[in-house]
């Protein structure tokens, strides 16, 4: 189980990929409490933050934050390439600066002292901010660390349905930012970009969102832009094999270098939804594409959202209730030699094309100990016969090695850069 701590549990919220780790309450006043001007009481006392603002995820831990953290309502993904002249030493300095910025912001503190901070997140608490760092294939050659490059970063196989834009794919460094407040998330994005200095150049950047905590009467699994309940059958930290499936072990086997202990691999796909086509389908046809009911995410074979799907059940006419090409049937671990991943996506919407079609879909992010035992076999299967394929288009792709979390006084990636 992740050892990140959220300081106050939200009573209402977007049910995330996993449960919350609960810990000591009350440490999250941070920047908001320090900037008492607008949030302070009339007697100069400091007004307590709402539950949402005060939720704090710990930066330090065995694993980086933003993997098992419940998915937040605002997300930014950004990739950088190292600048010419940036070697191992400069890359180490960058990761040290980034880690310090992430640690401060996640604790609700200003960056570089109140004088230097942009004030964009002033008055807000950490709002479950997480900042997660990863290394792409190109990082290792540019820093002379080829021998440390994990085999898992080898390019993904090409899939027949790929329509990938190279300029918006891959990258030497990847940063995932999530928060339950849009200003807090943007503030973190700018701080990360500023700290990059001359060491790296922006390659691509994407913005995403999920439902805001408190929008539903009780915590519920979020929905995607096709209207489906999305995230139901994710591996859970309470599962016996959760750590083995999602994280590189403490003593990595041959395939993984020692510096990846406690780390994970993120596969990132920008998947456009062809919503004009999708929305023409009847609800019944949409449900057959997925194999689950749209209203509540329950399997078509009955029960509630969490009821096990009955893959063998037939109608009176002898047809399978869950069609053979239904997405939720063919993506299951038991249909893919046990392949499993933790899906933690954001929706995106980047306006409309000249034809008026929405440029919208899913920033699909999945986490696994090995993409060859997670994303790759499942995507191969989906590529061959997923009913959903006609309604989606994969437009960008990346794989990133996300090292384990930093201990106090350490920075992310230190074992690689100083090992
Ligand atoms: C290669 C992996 C996957 C891609 C790419 C993918 C894209 C994608 N999925 C949805 C919507 C849903 N997916 C659901 C379940 C589901 N999807 C994957 C994998 C990929 N999806 C898995 C492993 C599973 C779980 C299967 C299981 O064990 O039951 C569901 C059902 C609800 C749920 O369990 O979350 C929906 C809905 C979209 C819209 C999409 C691309 C845009
Ligand atoms: Fe899916």
Overview of this protein structure:
The protein contains twelve helices and eleven strands. The protein is an alpha+beta fold and 419 residues long. Strands 7, 8, 9, 10 and 11 form a five-stranded antiparallel β-sheet that branches. The protein has a four-stranded antiparallel β-sheet with strand order 3-4-2-5. It has a two-stranded parallel ribbon with strand order 1-6. 47% of the residues are buried. The model is unreliable at 1-5, 7-30 and 33-42 (pLDDT under 50). Bound molecules: the ligand C=CC1=C(C)c2cc3[nH]c(cc4nc(cc5[nH]c(cc1n2)c(C)c5CCC(=O)O)C(CCC(=O)O)=C4C)c(C)c3C=C and fe (ii) ion (FE2). The ligand C=CC1=C(C)c2cc3[nH]c(cc4nc(cc5[nH]c(cc1n2)c(C)c5CCC(=O)O)C(CCC(=O)O)=C4C)c(C)c3C=C is lined by residues 224, 226, 228, 230-233, 269, 271, 273, 290, 292, 297, 327-328, 331-333, 361-362, 364, 375, 378-379, 382, 392. Fe (ii) ion binds at residues 327, 331. It is an enzyme of class 1 (oxidoreductase). Involved in the recovery of exogenous heme iron. Extracts iron from heme while preserving the protoporphyrin ring intact.
Defining traits:
5-stranded antiparallel sheet; disordered N terminus; 419 residues; alpha+beta; 18% strand; binds the ligand C=CC1=C(C)c2cc3[nH]c(cc4nc(cc5[nH]c(cc1n2)c(C)c5CCC(=O)O)C(CCC(=O)O)=C4C)c(C)c3C=C; peroxidase activity; 2 domains; binds fe (ii) ion; 12 helices; Alpha-Beta Plaits; globular; EC 1.11.1.-; 4-stranded antiparallel sheet; peroxidase; Deferrochelatase
């Amino acid at each position: 189980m992740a050892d990140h701590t959220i300081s106050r549990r939200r009573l209402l919220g977007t049910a995330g990929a996993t449960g919350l780790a609960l810990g000591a309450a009350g440490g999250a006043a941070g920047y908001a409490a320090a900037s008492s001007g607008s949030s302070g009481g009339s007697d100069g006392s400091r007004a307590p933050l709402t539950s949402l603002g005060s939720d704090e995820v710990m930066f330090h831990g065995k694993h980086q934050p933003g993997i098992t953290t419940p998915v937040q309502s605002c997300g930014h993904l950004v990739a950088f390439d190292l600048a010419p002249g940036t070697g191992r030493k400069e890359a180490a300095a960058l990761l040290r600066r980034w880690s310090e910025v992430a640690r401060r912001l996640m604790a609700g503190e200003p960056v570089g002292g109140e004088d230097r901070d942009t004030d964009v997140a002033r008055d807000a608490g950490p709002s479950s901010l997480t900042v997660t760092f990863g290394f792409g294939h190109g990082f290792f050659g540019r820093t002379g660390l080829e021998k440390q490059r994990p085999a898992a970063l080898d390019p993904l196989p090409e899939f027949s349905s790929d329509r990938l834009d190279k300029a918006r794919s891959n990258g030497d460094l990847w940063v995932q930012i999530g928060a339950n407040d849009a200003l807090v998330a943007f503030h973190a994005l700018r701080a990360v970009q500023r700290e990059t200095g001359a060491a790296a150049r922006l390659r691509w950047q994407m913005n995403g969102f999920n439902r805001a905590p408190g929008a539903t009467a009780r915590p519920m699994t979020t929905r995607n832009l096709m209207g489906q309940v999305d995230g139901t059958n994710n591996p859970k930290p309470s599962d016996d094999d959760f750590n083995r499936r999602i994280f590189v072990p403490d003593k990595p086997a041959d395939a993984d270098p020692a510096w990846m202990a406690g780390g994970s691999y993120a596969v990132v796909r920008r998947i456009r939804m062809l919503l004009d086509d999708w929305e023409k389908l009847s609800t019944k046809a949409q449900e057959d594409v997925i194999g689950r009911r749209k209203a509540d995410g329950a399997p078509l074979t009955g029960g509630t959202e969490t009821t096990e799907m009955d893959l063998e059940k037939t109608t009176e006419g002898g047809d399978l209730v869950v069609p053979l090409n239904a997405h939720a049937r063919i993506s299951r671990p038991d249909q893919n030699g046990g392949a499993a991943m933790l899906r933690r996506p954001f929706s995106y919407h980047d306006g409309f094309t000249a034809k008026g079609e929405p440029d919208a879909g899913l920033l699909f992010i999945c986490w696994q100990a090995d993409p060859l035992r997670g994303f790759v076999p499942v995507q191969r299967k989906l590529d061959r016969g997923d009913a959903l394929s006609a309604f989606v288009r994969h437009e960008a792709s990346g794989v990133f090695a996300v090292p384990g979390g930093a201990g106090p006084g350490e920075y992310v990636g230190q074992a690689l850069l100083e090992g």
